[in-house]
Amino acid sequence: MSDTPVIGVLALQGDVREHLIALASADALARPVRRPEELAEVDGLVIPGGESTTMSKLAVLFGMLDPLRERVRAGMPVYGTCAGMILLADKILDPRSGQETVGGIDMIVRRNAFGRQNESFEAAVDVDGIADGPVEGVFIRAPWVESVGAQAEVIAEHGGHIVAVRQGNALATSFHPELTGDHRVHALFVDMVRAVL
After folding, report:
1. I want to staple 36 with a disulfide (CB 3.0 to 4.6 A). Which of 60, 67, 96, 107 is the partner?
2. pLDDT surpassing 60 at residue 1
3. Are the beta carbons of 25 and 66 closer than 8 angstroms?
4. Are 113 and 94 a contacting pair, CB within 8 Å?
5. Residue 20 and residue 16: Cα distance in Å, rounded?
6. Does residue 7 contact residue 197 with C-beta atoms inside 8 Å?
7. Quick check: 33 and 194 in contact, CB under 8 A?
8. If you write DSSP's letter for every residue of 70-98 in order, what string do you get?
9. Nearest residue to 85 via CA among 31, 29, 137, 32
10. Which residues does the annotation mark as catalytic?
């Protein structure tokens, strides 16, 4: 059996192409996923940044929300960035009307916590489990994690706020590592997927 994992990027909305490139550079076979039958063919999944309310509504529209929840509950490795982090949270503070989550990480997330689009910024972030110094975090209307449950492990903080969490086969960052050309976070996720093949 090949140890090259097939990793999907949820391609309903958001920065899909950048994740496909980052995953490919981390030695995964990357493909966009829009339908349940495509989800069934991947070993792991990235939920990209974008607009979390729109993404959750599109997931319902495309018949993806329940299959996503089932795969995550069954242990499929999943990585969410920014809006993806919000979708992986078991609870959102002040959710928009009709906003649903996939769940999978015992955390409470605050949407747009770091401010609006014009308050976006970059910062060096030390992430547990990633060697060779901090990663450059790009924060765009980014959430932060208000609190985590006993099963979730905080792996990075910035400015006193939790910005990266891991729980079992689920990983989430409030920042966008796919926009920097540094693919170490994606490599970490590819290793998580490879571990369950």
Report:
1. 67
2. no
3. no
4. no
5. 6
6. no
7. no
8. HHHHTT--EEEETHHHHHHEEEEESPPTT
9. 137
10. 82, 176, 178
The three-point CA angle 76-82-84 to 5° equals 30
Q: What is the pLDDT of residue 90?
A: 96
Q: What is the pLDDT of residue 2?
A: 64
How far is it, in rounded angstroms, from Cα 22 to Cα 30?
9
Q: pLDDT digit string (tens) for 19-71? A: 999 999 999 999 999 999 999 999 999 999 999 999 999 999 999 999 999 99
SS3 content of the chain, % helix, strand, coil (to 5): 30, 30, 40
What pTM does this model have? 0.96
- Main-chain phi, psi angles of 4, to 5 degrees: -90, 105
In total, the chain counts a number of residues equal to: 197
First to last CA, the chain: 9
